[in-house]
Amino acid sequence: MTVPAVGLRKVEGGVRLTPLLKLLILTQLAFNIGFFAVLPFLSEHLGQAIGMAGWLVGLVLGLRTFSQQGLFVVGGALADRYGIRPVVLAGCVLRIAGFGWLGYAGETWSVVGAVLLIGFAAALFSPAVESEVARQAVLLEQSGGGSRTRVLALFTVAGQAGAFVGPLLGALLLGVDFRAVCLAGAGIFVLVLAGHAWLLPQHIPGRARTRLKGGLPLLLRNRRFLALCCAYGAYLLAYNQLYLALPAEVERAVGSQAPLAWLFALSSLLVVTAQLPVTGWATTRLTLRRSMVMGLVLIATGFALVAAARPADTTGTTALLPAAGFVVLLTLGQMLIAPAARAWIPDLAQDGRLGLYTGALSSVSGLIVLAGSSATGMLLDAGLPPAVPWLVLAVVPVVAIGALPRRQEVGERRLELRRRSRR
Fold first, then answer.
1. Coil, helix or strand for 352?
2. Residue 299's closest CA among 389, 393, 163?
3. 10: which strand partners?
């Protein structure tokens, strides 16, 4: 595929973005601001304001995750069939309705309906946007506008910045009430809807619409893509320990989970400030596979660091240092893995079905996280020696390295030759 260089603009790292790529990257920023303005405060609202039992709160949050991650494959397939514009606009409408409904929901059935709508909305617009960013990044790379991984790194930075700003906005509005938070989230998506109705093209050149029938069986026979899904799922399972194993370790060290906010802020700050330099370094030195391997090794090292410190059973502020080291290594691993995995999908996907494959990556890896998180919870509660759960978790990314596809794709070999010619 080739595209003209008309309309490209240089940005940091030598990447020249088209107007469409700028719109899609800003879309990710806006999506996450609106979403994370509400999500961090949902569980407390359900437990205290509505009076749900703890198990029911967990169930509601799990249903939201399932309706989102589990149905990404549906949203991706619809984007392939109908184009990204109608799918993104429909997703925005559903998210507006879901947030508005949640703000007024006072009974369990009503809350469940609202969170399912909120989750399904993301299952529509997220794979549509992500797949088109990946497709445009490949076209940009082929036209000489810059590396696809740098474009996808910008996409990651925009998402992380939104995840950082959103909770701050939500916390300010929570002083009014939770309904105000929900309505503000809905308002952000009203702006996104209006902007996309105006700016998103009716037809994107080079994007052909593909029949829904026949795509999934071919995907399930694509062993190399499924291997990437398994490796990416192992990474997400490891990353999920920020919300499972890490809080338990922080509670043990200082008797409170208050430092978690600072550790999460550290992770977000690292991504926002270091993602582009890290990606720039990796792009010139590593293939996509090697970038993912290095990221998985860093994550395994982070788990091993906590495992090595646990037998000492120290407490107090200094006992948080291994946890902080874990967060830093996990975040560095994320910065190497996430853009590389997204950049790899176009090389493995069937022509015309990039949306399906992008959605399937999230759905398959989400199922791995669901099963793995249950196993991790039992592992942490099993009364084993304190270092054992962390050592077992360290093994997971190491095993994932073996699952990665081994043969380089044609596109990667071409880029490798190009790098060598520049030396």
1. coil
2. 393
3. 16
Q: Report which of 115, 82, 84, 91 is spatially closest to residue 101, judged by C-alpha positions.
A: 115
- Cβ atoms within 10 Å, residue 109: 8
The Cα 224–Cα 215 span in angstroms is: 16
Q: Tell me how far apart the alpha carbons of residues 361 and 341 are, in angstroms, rounded to a whole number.
A: 9
The two three-digit tokens of residue 215, written as one number: 């795509």
Which residue ranges form the domains of the chain, and what is each CATH number? 12-207 (1.20.1250.20), 214-423 (1.20.1250.20)
How far apart, in whole angstroms, are the C-alpha atoms of residue 153 and residue 211? 31
Asked if 254 and 318 touch (Cβ cutoff 8 Å), the reply is: no
Q: How far is CA 24 from the centre of its chain?
A: 15
pLDDT of residue 47 exceeding 70, the answer is: yes
* Average pLDDT of the chain, as a whole number: 81
pLDDT computed for residue 140 by the predictor: 83
Could you tell me the pLDDT band of residue 106, with boundaries at 50, 70 and 90? confident
Tokens for 86, please give them.
């109608």
Q: How many other CB atoms sit within 10 Å of the CB of residue 59?
A: 14
Query: Among positive and negative, which fits the CA dihedral 397, 403, 406, 410?
Result: negative
